[in-house]
Amino acid sequence: MRGDLIIFSGTANPALTREICDIEGVPVGACDIARFSDGETRVKINRNVRGADVYILQPTCSPVNENLAELLFLIDACRRASADHINAVIPYYGYGRQDRKEEGRVSLSAKLVANLITTAGADRVITVDLHAGQIQGFFDIPVDHLLAQPILIDYINEHIGIDDGVVVSADVGRVKRARNFAERLGLPLAIVDKRRPAANVSEVLHVIGDVEGRTAFIFDDMIDTAGTIYNAAKAVVEHGAQRVFACCTHGVLSGNARERLAEAPLEKIIVTNTIPQNDPGPLKNLVVCSVAPMIAEAINRVHTHRSVSEMFG
Fold first, then answer.
1. 194 is catalytic
2. Measured between alpha carbons, how far is residue 125 from residues 81, 101, 249 in Å?
3. Domains in the chain, start-ordered, CATH in brackets?
4. Predicted pLDDT at 203
5. How far apart are CA 155 and CA 287, in angstroms?
């Protein structure tokens, strides 16, 4: 057994932290996070962490750079206060899409962020549904990669049903994950073939597979500007789908994504609370499933030196 389990929260998703702490039966660690008038962030830990097993929960969602800075400063503060183990719990890993160089003279930002987290003093990272699995290899410390698929599948089975269903990959590049999602549900797979003429812009070219008369579950790891999901939903409806649902882990929902999704032919948009959804705006059909029990179980397993991978079979 490690030292006392202490969970701190940045300002990105305190509601998720409180939910996890309630499950673990521990209070949220006391800390102060403030910003000076020039925008600098100040972090202070308000309890003794010497020899403790510390977990810092902070998704690096919007505002990405501020939330990333908070995470780094919280890690540094705990390290300087002599915490025994520092675990960065990052439900949503920002900069995850910048994981490779597709053209010259660009930053490999996903790797740089991994270096910053390690240098700040983290001993381990716990994260959910990385955009690219190889990001785990960017870290020189252990990474526990949690999967939200079972949470989405439980919701589908309990509230929607899978009769005449088909899983639709919103992107050829996400086929492997969508196929796994389809296999877990026992459903066939269809694929939306698209191209990206510019960043955050997508155009559907073909729908590969049979969606006519079926309930389509469009699967992706995240919804950002919602162009991909919007176009995929329209495409499967044009190909005869009767009901259409969007299923994703991370509801980034930047820009006018909410307005776009409100106009899409989607019965429900199912996301998790890795990113807080405090203002759904025009989205009356947004469903938010909690990852708190899964993250709490992972924390408990790390704290007690048990396998995390066994959670997913």
1. yes
2. 19, 24, 18
3. 5-147+292-312 (3.40.50.2020), 149-289 (3.40.50.2020)
4. 61
5. 10
pLDDT surpasses 60 at 99:
yes
Q: How many CA atoms lie within 13 A of 247 on its CB side?
A: 28
pLDDT in the model for residue 3: 86
Entry field: residues in the chain = 313
Cβ neighbourhood burial of 106 (10 Å; 0-12, 13-18, 19+): exposed
Q: Which phi and psi angles does 193 have, rounded to 5°?
A: -95, 120
DSSP 8-class letter at 311 = G
Catalytic-role residue among 101, 194, 234, 268: 194
Helix axes 14-24, 292-303, angle to 10 degrees: 60
Predicted confidence at residue 283, as pLDDT, reads 87
Average pLDDT over the chain reads 94
The pLDDT tens digits for 132-164 are 989 999 999 999 999 999 999 999 999 999 999
> Residue range 269-296: average pLDDT?
93
Sequence-distant (6+) residues with CB within 8 A of 287 are: 155, 268, 269, 270, 271
User: 252 to each of 52, 228, 260, 268, how far by Cα in Å?
Assistant: 33, 13, 13, 16
Is the sign of the CA dihedral 304, 305, 308, 313 positive or negative? negative
Q: What is the mean pLDDT of residues 31-44?
A: 96
pTM equals 0.94
